[in-house]
Backbone:
């Protein structure tokens, strides 16, 4: 990924939350024909920045409950990218207990940060980066019995140095295809255009699927989706989001698997690992404005 400047994060958040969402890309006969040769998709759900340490109506625990019991597909498994040492997340007793609940429910515990805040790893010196990666791996292993195999760098941002550090710790970078743009959790955090946002993003991913750019794993094409389980709005609307994802595939002419979400942890892990970034120089596709942000910051 390109270099990083804090101003670009603020700009990216403003743009992504500002409602500037284009219409879905029109489905052409050529794309429709190409899709017929592709496997069906299955949505691979991921959640960033948790777990919530709230003692009131805990949003992470609400998400866990809705994944287990919902009218779309009960027993959905997801990947949770954790802030293992943040006081408002995994660094609290309640946060750790919630991580244990996630693991007991069959979800995958993956690594996001082990700093006190949501700190970009590229800001950390070599020693601090190594320390926090080791700390996070230890935090997760103490619950699951094994260090995490998946990492999502904060702000999606990494470089050659941090990517190499992840690899030394056996962590593989998983980015995303779709984003609910729900990362804002203070102040106004509703998402009035959540349906239009996902309709548009699925149409973009559909074009890549038609070109055969996404791998097939266990007979389906995993499409990675990102939410934030610490966002109360997301938690309140989790079941609705599941239906919106199905509707997004339907209106864009994309066939979903019989089980459109993952319910088996082993299959989920295989799919997630297949979608990880294999090389630091690999060209990646991020939803919304993030690719533009990193490209602009490289000049």
Residues:
């Amino acid at each position: 990924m390109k270099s990083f400047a804090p101003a670009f994060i603020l700009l990216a958040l403003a743009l992504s939350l500002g409602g500037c969402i284009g219409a879905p890309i029109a489905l052409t006969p050529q794309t429709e024909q190409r899709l017929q040769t592709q496997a069906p998709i299955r949505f691979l759900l991921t959640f960033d920045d948790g777990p919530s340490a709230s003692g009131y109506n805990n949003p992470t625990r609400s998400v866990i409950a809705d994944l287990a019991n919902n009218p779309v597909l009960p027993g959905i498994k997801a990947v949770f990218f954790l802030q293992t040492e943040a006081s408002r997340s995994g660094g609290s007793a309640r946060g750790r207990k919630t991580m244990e609940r996630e693991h007991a429910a069959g979800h995958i515990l993956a690594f996001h940060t082990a700093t006190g805040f949501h700190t970009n790893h590229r800001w950390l010196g070599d020693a601090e980066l190594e320390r926090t990666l080791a700390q996070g791996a230890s935090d997760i292993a103490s619950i699951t019995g094994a260090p995490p195999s998946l990492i999502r760098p904060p702000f999606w941002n990494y470089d050659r140095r941090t990517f190499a550090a992840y690899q030394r710790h056996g962590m593989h970078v998983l980015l995303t295809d779709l984003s609910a743009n729900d990362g804002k959790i203070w102040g106004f955090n509703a998402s009035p255009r959540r349906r239009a946002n996902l309709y548009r993003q699925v149409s973009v991913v559909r074009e890549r699927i038609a070109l055969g750019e996404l791998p097939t794993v266990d007979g389906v094409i995993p499409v990675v989706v990102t939410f934030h389980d610490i966002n109360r709005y997301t938690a309140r609307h989790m079941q609705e989001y599941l239906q919106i994802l199905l509707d997004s595939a339907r209106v864009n002419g994309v066939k979903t698997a019989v089980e459109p979400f993952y319910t088996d942890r082993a299959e989920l892990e295989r799919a997630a690992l297949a979608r990880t970034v294999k090389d630091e120089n690999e060209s990646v596709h991020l939803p919304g404005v993030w690719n533009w942000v990193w490209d602009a910051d490289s000049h």
